[in-house]
Amino acid sequence: MFLFSSYHIYCVGLKEIPSGRWHCVECSLCSLCGATEPMGGEEITEELLAKRKGKQIDWVFEYKPGATGGKVYSHTLCIPCHRLWKKGQFCPECNICFGREKSGGRGNEVFSKVAEVEYANCWVCQRTHHAICVGDPNRFICLACQQKTQAKCVGLAGNVTTVTTEMTAHQNASFSANTSASTSFTYTRSGRRAGAVQTYA
Fold this sequence. Notes:
Layout: H1 46-52, E1 60-65, E2 71-77, H2 79-86, H3 105-111, E3 119-121, E4 128-130, H4 131-134, H5 143-178, E5 181-187, E6 193-200
Antiparallel strand pairs: 1-2, 3-4, 5-6
């Protein structure tokens, strides 16, 4: 949630108006773990600085495709969470990265009462989730696999209906083509026609 408030640049420690995205103190937090600073509680090391190749230590902004085709802001990540997010090492249910469950305010709220973080793997795709997020980790199929299974079932049901309809139509056409009808009439003694009987050969 962002405030969309306006500030004097000298009141927030800026020398000029930023050219890109800028978040105030209230909104400067990681959307995943809830950390309030870009390093997410980790120390700045020489190895990290070498990997960043001169890039400034700052928040990472993620974008998504907009309705008109352009990019629209999606969420803010701290550097450690962004590194794990790009590798897919996060729980699809709570979106908190593995190993950072108690690194920020949001993670502490979810895992504060858990002595040790446990994980569960989906029976179908083996993707890792937090056990606390899925309830029963011993018998667990993730939401993505459930939706795929449901879509397949709906598709198969549609195919069965189509095949049945086509077979019925084909049988009716074959019956009409292979049979010839003949009609015979019955008459009374006075010569009037009493009825008709239709037979198939």
